[in-house]
Amino acid sequence: MMALQEQLVADMKAALRAQDPVRLGTIRLLRAALQNAEKALGQPLGEAAAAEVVRREIKRRQEAIEAYRRGGREDLVAQEEAELEVLQAYQAEPLSEAELTALARQVIQAEGATSRKDLGRVMKALMPRVQGRADGKLVNTIVGALLENAGD
Questions:
Q1: Quick check: 51 and 133 in contact, CB under 8 A?
Q2: 17 and 79 in a common domain
C-alpha cells in the first residue's frame, strides 16, 4: 500500500506543477477513498485491499458513465471518462480470460468440485487469489461454465 500512496503523492505533485485539475482532483479523491478504507479497517491497507479500493472507484466511474449516457449528459460523461482514465493507471494488471479460466480450473480441482452446487466453495477459494485483478461477475460466469461442463 505504501508504494501506491507514494506514487499518488508524487503524481499529485506533478499534476499540481502541470496545472492538471482533472488528474489532481481524481488523485485526491482516490487518496481520500484509500484513507477512508484504512480508517474503516482500523489498520493500514495491504496491496490487495488497496487494489480493491482502486477497482471500486473505477467501477463507480463506469456506472456513472452509463447513467449519464442514459440521461443524455455528455458533459458529465466526458468528465467521468477523464477521471476513469486517470484511475486506470493505478489499477493492477487485470487477468486475461484465459488466465482466469486456468486459475479457476486449478481451484476447482483443488476443491474437488464436481457440479454447480460447489460454486460457492470454489468462489470462496478463488476470489482472494484474483482480488483487484478480475471482476467478480466474470469470475462467477467462468466458474459456473466450468462446473456445468464438469457435471456432464
A1: yes
A2: yes
Cell (9 digits) for 113 = 468440485
Instruction: Determine contact, residues 50/62, Cβ cutoff 8 Å.
Output: no
Q: Which CA distances in Å does 69 have to 42, 62, 138?
A: 38, 11, 24
Q: What angle do CA 6, 11, 13 make, to 5 degrees?
A: 100
Structural domain of 102: 97-150
Report the 10 Å Cβ neighbour count for 102: 11
Contact between 47 and 1 (Cβ < 8 Å): yes
- The shares of helix, strand and coil residues in the chain, as percent rounded to the nearest 5, are 80, 0, 20
- Span 65-89, pLDDT tens digits: 999 999 999 999 999 999 999 998 8
Q: From CA 57, how far away is CA 30, in angstroms rounded?
A: 7
CATH code of residue 32: 1.10.1510.10
Question: 27-42: per-residue pLDDT in tens?
Answer: 999 999 999 999 998 8
